[in-house]
Automatic annotation (TrEMBL):
It holds the Pfam family Glyoxalase_7. Keywords: Antibiotic resistance, Dioxygenase, Oxidoreductase. SUPFAM superfamilies: Glyoxalase/Bleomycin resistance protein/Dihydroxybiphenyl dioxygenase (SSF54593). Residues 2-119 form the VOC domain. This is Bleomycin resistance protein. Belongs to the bleomycin resistance protein family. One of its GO terms (biological process) is response to antibiotic. InterPro entries: Bleomycin-R (IPR000335), Glyas_Bleomycin-R_OHBP_Dase (IPR029068), VOC_core (IPR037523). It comes from the Bacteria. It comes from Chryseobacterium phosphatilyticum. GO terms for molecular function: dioxygenase activity.
């Protein structure tokens, strides 16, 4: 077997809070959304570059409190972009993680978290300020 893509499913509870967090703040876009009937829970796909998430209001699709771990590039720049938006519910710190990466974690309104990571490069990241748990 060879997996072509892995898409985490995260549980959500409020459509408008979902848009505020994932679309307005994190900068994802809605790829599609589905309702079985009018006034039923939404199941949607959001994406940002090559990060794809499925978000579901349906009971049993996923457990609140899940984590998604993302490796990427430009993490410090993305962190600055988010901080500059002054979103009142999240102000994540940027840190140098014990696994030799720069990292920050965001918590969605439903208890899920996304951990954004980039391999640490001393030349590239030497001028950045980090808040570390070390």
């Amino acid at each position: 077997m060879k997996a072509e893509q892995i898409i985490p499913v995260l549980r959500i509870f409020d459509y408008h809070k979902t848009l505020e967090f994932y679309i307005d703040w994190l900068g994802f876009e809605i790829a599609w959304e589905h309702h079985f009937d009018e006034n039923t829970p939404v199941y949607m796909e959001v994406k940002k570059d090559n990060i794809v998430l499925h978000l579901s209001e349906h009971h049993g699709d996923a457990s609140p409190g899940s984590s998604v771990f993302v490796w990427g590039e430009g993490i410090a720049e993305y962190h600055k972009e988010l901080i500059d938006k002054k979103y009142k519910y999240n102000r994540p710190g940027l840190e140098k993680a014990f696994y030799d990466a720069i990292s920050f974690t965001v918590h969605d309104p439903f208890g899920n978290k996304i951990i954004f990571n980039e391999k640490f490069d001393a030349q590239k990241h030497s001028v950045l300020q980090f808040y570390s748990n070390e």
